[in-house]
């Protein structure tokens, strides 16, 4: 199986759905954010603070490209589509799954979350980021799954069905 790349806005459930999918499909799950944090022994917010977003994007691209392009479920960070090279890599090598979530639902899920530097903004900036990124996710996706009001297991099961695999 070609690797699956889970993309979507912050709070769309890429990590938890990736975990469910790796169990369901019995393949290895990888998470670019976790890998960056573990390998550098630093929190992402600290990378943004000390080295800036550009440096983080470099770690992110390097990490993405190191993960095998077969038999992996790859949970990405919400900004993976900010780098064209990442989009080209995912489209060329795997199946891209967009977890589509409304901004209202994200607001509910990330209420009080201060760990994400790009979420720690005012409402207008968050709306702008959401609006700018939404078409990037859609254009990149082979499969789109709605996540509002749904459990991660159901979402993972729908991804499996949309891949043409028996439930
Ligand atoms: C980011 C999303 C985060 C993390 C970093 C930047 C973004 O991941 O990669 O804070 O640019 O949207 P999640 O999508 O898992 O929150």
Produce a short descriptive summary.
With 167 residues, the protein is α/β, with parallel strands linked by helices. 53% of the residues lie in helices and 13% in strands.
Question: Would you write up a description of this structure?
Answer:
The chain has helices spanning 14-25, 32-40, 44-50, 53-66, 84-93, 103-109, 123-140, 152-162; strands at residues 4-7, 28-31, 72-75, 95-100, 143-146. The chain is 53% helix and 13% strand. It is α/β, with parallel strands linked by helices and 167 residues long. The chain has eight helices and five strands. It has a five-stranded parallel beta sheet with strand order 2-3-1-4-5, with helices on both faces. The longest helix is centred in the C-terminal third of the chain and has 18 residues, at 123-140. The chain is globular, with a radius of gyration of 15 Å. α1 packs across α8, α2 (32-40) packs across α4 (53-66) and α3 crosses α4 (53-66). 30% of the residues are buried. The structure holds shikimate-3-phosphate (S3P). Shikimate-3-phosphate is lined by residues 10, 14, 33, 44, 77-79, 116-118.
Order of helices and strands: EHEHHHEHEHHEH
Radius of gyration: 15 Å
Task: Characterize the biggest β-sheet.
Answer: 5 strands, parallel
Bound ions, cofactors and other small molecules, one mention each: shikimate-3-phosphate
Kindly state the number of beta strands: 5
Average pLDDT number? 97
Structural class: alpha/beta
The main sheet orders its strands as 2-3-1-4-5
Beta content comes to 5-15%
Low confidence ranges: none
